[in-house]
């Protein structure tokens, strides 16, 4: 693919003009592997270098193909140099939680709780934090 210089900002193409074809290549990889179109849930793209008038190649790789979600990554480059790295999670829809009007449990006032742990309470309790 070659990106026309009319789409450039500063010294090359960035952003959506490059992310769009990267996403398309990842979708094509998923369809090729699974034979099914699955909606995009998340897309992350890192522009590593501006893309100029040289041809750009997209090399998608399936990382995981699952029943509900699949992950594909891509590296786009020109002349052997990476210009973009991206990853997308595709996911099928599913049931969603239902609304419940149950009330949350009562929570003690923070100041009352802190008073119990202060030394002037006369208590020998200590708070231990384990990692």
Give your account of this protein's structure.
The chain is an alpha+beta fold. It has a domain at 5-91: Hotdog Thioesterase (Thiol Ester Dehydrase, Chain A, Roll). 21% of the residues lie in helices and 29% in strands. It is built from two helices and four strands; from the N terminus they run αββββα. A four-stranded antiparallel β-sheet has the order 1-4-3-2, covered by helices on one side. It is elongated, with a radius of gyration of 26 Å.
- Mean of the pLDDT scores? 77
Q: Give the termini separation.
A: 51 Å
CATH class of one domain: Alpha Beta
CATH topology-level name of one domain: Thiol Ester Dehydrase, Chain A
Would you identify the regions where 5 or more consecutive residues have pLDDT less than 50?
none
- The CATH architecture of one domain comes to Roll
Order of secondary-structure elements = HEEEEH
Secondary structure: number of strands = 4
Roughly how many Å is the radius of gyration?
26 Å
């Amino acid at each position: 693919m070659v990106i026309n210089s009319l789409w450039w900002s500063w010294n090359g193409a960035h952003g959506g003009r490059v992310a769009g074809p990267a996403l398309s290549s990842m979708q094509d990889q998923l369809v090729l592997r699974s034979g099914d179109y699955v909606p995009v849930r998340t897309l992350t793209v890192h522009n590593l270098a501006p893309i100029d008038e040289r041809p750009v190649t997209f090399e998608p790789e399936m990382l995981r193909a699952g029943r509900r979600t699949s992950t594909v990554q891509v590296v786009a480059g020109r002349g052997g140099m990476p210009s973009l790295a991206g990853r997308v999670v595709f996911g099928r829809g599913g049931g969603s939680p239902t609304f419940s009007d149950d009330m949350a449990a009562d929570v003690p006032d923070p100041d009352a709780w802190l008073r119990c742990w202060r030394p002037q309470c006369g208590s020998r309790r200590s708070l231990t934090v384990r990692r």
